[in-house]
Amino acid sequence: MTTEVSVIAITCHNFGFFLSYRVGSNMRSLVMSCIFYKSLRLSSAVKQQCATVQVLTLTSVGAERVFNAMMQGPWLVGAPLGFGVVVALIGLLFDAVILLLLQYLTTRDVPRAGQGLDAHTVPDGLMDEVCLGVHLMEKTLGVTFADATNPLLVSMRSGAAISRCPA
Fold this sequence. Notes:
The protein is mostly helical. The protein contains 7 helices and no strands. The radius of gyration is 42 Å and the shape is rod-shaped.
C-alpha cells in the first residue's frame, strides 16, 4: 500500500511540475513577444541609442526570470506541504509501532493474571499469619472488621481471607 501511495504522490507531483513548465514556457514566449513589440514601437531616436543586442538581452533575461519563477513556483507550496505529509506519516508509523508494542506487552501477561493466589488456595500456614495480622489490626485500631464503617475496612472485610479467620 505504501508503494501505491508513493507512486500516486510522485505522479501528481510530476504532473504539477509539467503543468508549471508549460505555463512557464508560454509566459516566456509572451514576455519575449511583448518586449519585442515594445521595441518596435520605440521612436527612432531611442532605437538609435539601443543596440539590438541590448534589446535581445533584456528580452532573454526577463523571459528567463519569468520561466524560472514558474518552474520554482510549485516548490513554494509543494515543499512545505510534502514535508508536513512526511512528518505526519512518520508520526503515524511510530504511533502504530508503539501501539503494537504496548498491545504485545500487555497481552503477554494476561494468561498469568488469573494465576494469583485465591483465599481458598492459600496454604493453612499462610492463612494463619493473615488471620493473626487481622486480629492484631483489630486490637490496635479498636475496631472489628465485622462492624466497620470505614470504606477501606469494609473492602477489607469483604475479602475471603477475613471470612476464613476465626473470631
